């Protein structure tokens, strides 16, 4: 006869609560994805208000692409959730810890070398994850992306890239983990403060490991996988630098990344801290700026919009520079506060033996396992709530950025750029409201165009 909940031990309650919450989140995500798939299946014609923004051929291509991605996401998500559940039910975590101990024993090292054993455990865990995820990654790249014209990789390039990513991940993950575990071991009662400082910045001039990793990734790690070259001198570079100066943006370099050897998707981003910002443009985004294809560039995009270019001519003229209030790194501050809270709660919970018993650790309480249990499982409800709040905040920031462009008199350019990105990446402009609210950190295309006032004038 099954035990009632009240008869379960505290460790069993913890274990089953983790499983129930994990499947609850999965079912919620599956429900949202189902709502969005209904949109993909039922919306087969371009909505009237999008008639001058997207042609029917592109609309159908994006619909089928997103439908395939959604179906793939359902099956890969189901597999991932099932795999995670089986790992917990079958004691996969304590088993892998014992395997890492056996590996250590072969080198004559015992349980007192916990940090070394933790690194072996971590390497085996990431190897297992890479191995089980490989078939899904192959299918996504060579079936879905290939089918819709995005994949540019050969199988050899893909596998070589995967091995390189795994090696680079280990070179970063293992030393950082070792340092963190060492700090926790020697930090005494206030180890959580030192651990937090390790991942954040104590002073603006003394960045912690997280800030350092962000910087070295862009400058030293990303170039291991893609070729970064300075944007050639010309009108585009001059316009970018001129705009940066007009809003006091501390731009130091503009790069073009060779993303076309992997995919024909296009994008752009910037990175950096304080007075050292850099902009990166995908080469796929700039194909139209090539001297061999100059007629199809920004002007071509404007011509595709027809009369709209003339209607917004006045709007594209320079306007008074909007006031740029210096509000500091609010997002960074929120992130640091969240990190401190998490490390503090970890310090409170790490001594609770029942947490380790719940996941099959009866004879030992390894610090790395404690980190995994608390941050990945115990904090799951908090992480879900935080993720949703960050999505809402990100969407708010995107609208603010669009409003800033509008105040600068750049609404016309942003309007065309958003349409181009949506077309190039086969983004589907129609979204279920609940799916969009939960998942979209960037507002859907139509919402952004409405905020710019574009579709109403079309």
Topology readout:
Elements: H1 10-42, H2 56-89, H3 92-106, H4 114-147, H5 155-186, H6 191-199, H7 209-221, E1 228-230, H8 235-246, E2 251-257, E3 268-273, E4 276-282, H9 298-304, H10 308-311, H11 313-316, H12 330-349, H13 353-358, H14 367-378, H15 380-407, H16 411-424, H17 433-439, H18 445-452, H19 454-457
Parallel strand pairs: 2-4
Antiparallel strand pairs: 1-2, 3-4
Enzyme class: hydrolase
EC number: 3.4.24.84
Function: Proteolytically removes the C-terminal three residues of farnesylated proteins.
Q: Please, could you describe this protein's structure?
A:
- With 458 residues, the chain is mostly helical.
- 65% of the residues lie in helices and 5% in strands.
- The chain contains 19 helices and 4 strands.
- The protein has helices spanning 10-42, 56-89, 92-106, 114-147, 155-186, 191-199, 209-221, 235-246, 298-304, 308-311, 313-316, 330-349, 353-358, 367-378, 380-407, 411-424, 433-439, 445-452, 454-457, and strands at residues 228-230, 251-257, 268-273, 276-282.
- The chain has a 4-stranded mixed β-sheet, with helices on both faces.
- Helix 3 (92-106) crosses helix 4 and helix 6 (191-199) packs antiparallel against helix 12.
- The N and C termini lie far apart (68 Å).
- Mean pLDDT is 84; it is low at 202-208 and 289-320.
């Amino acid at each position: 006869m099954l035990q009632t909940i009240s008869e379960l031990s505290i460790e069993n309650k913890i274990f089953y609560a983790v499983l129930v919450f994990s499947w609850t989140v999965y079912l919620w995500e599956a429900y949202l994805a189902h709502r969005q798939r209904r949109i993909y299946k039922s919306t087969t014609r371009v909505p009237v208000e999008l008639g001058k923004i997207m042609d029917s051929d592109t609309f159908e291509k994006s619909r089928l692409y997103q439908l395939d991605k959604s179906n793939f996401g359902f099956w890969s998500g189901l597999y991932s959730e099932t795999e995670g559940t089986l790992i917990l039910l079958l004691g996969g975590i304590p088993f892998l810890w014992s395997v890492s101990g056996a590996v250590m024993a072969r080198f004559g090292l015992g349980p007192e070398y916990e940090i070394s054993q933790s690194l072996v455990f971590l390497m085996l865990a990431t190897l297992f994850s890479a191995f089980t995820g490989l078939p899904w990654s192959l299918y996504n790249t060579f079936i879905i992306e290939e089918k819709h014209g995005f994949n540019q990789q050969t199988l050899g390039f893909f596998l070589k890239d995967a091995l390189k990513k795994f090696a680079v991940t280990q070179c970063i993950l293992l030393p950082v983990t070792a340092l963190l575990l060492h700090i926790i071991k020697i930090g005494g009662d206030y180890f959580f403060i030192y651990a937090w400082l390790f991942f954040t910045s104590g002073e603006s001039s003394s960045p912690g490991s997280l800030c350092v990793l962000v910087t070295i990734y862009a400058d030293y790690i990303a170039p291991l996988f893609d070729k970064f070259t300075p944007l050639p001198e010309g009108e585009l570079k001059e316009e970018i630098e001129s705009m940066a100066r007009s809003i006091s943006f501390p731009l130091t370099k503009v790069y073009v990344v060779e993303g076309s050897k992997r995919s024909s998707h296009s994008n752009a981003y910037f990175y950096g801290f304080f007075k050292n910002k850099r902009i990166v443009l995908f080469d796929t985004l700039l194909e139209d700026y090539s001297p061999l294809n100059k007629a199809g560039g920004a002007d071509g995009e404007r011509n595709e919009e027809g009369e709209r270019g003339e209607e917004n001519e006045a709007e594209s003229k320079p306007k008074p520079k909007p006031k740029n209030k210096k509000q500091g790194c609010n997002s960074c501050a929120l992130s640091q506060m969240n990190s401190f809270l998490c490390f503090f709660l970890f310090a409170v919970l790490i001594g609770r033996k029942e947490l380790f018993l719940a996941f099959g650790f009866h004879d030992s309480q390894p610090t790395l396992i404690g980190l995994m249990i608390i941050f990945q499982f115990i904090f799951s409800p908090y992480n879900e709530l935080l993720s949703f709040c960050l999505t809402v905040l990100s969407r708010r920031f995107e609208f603010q950025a669009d409003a800033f462009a509008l105040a600068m008199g750049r609404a016309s350019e942003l309007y065309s750029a958003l349409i181009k990105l949506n077309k190039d990446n086969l983004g589907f402009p129609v979204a279920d409201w609940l799916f969009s609210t939960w998942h979209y950190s960037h507002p859907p295309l139509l919402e952004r165009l409405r905020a710019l006032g574009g579709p109403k004038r079309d």
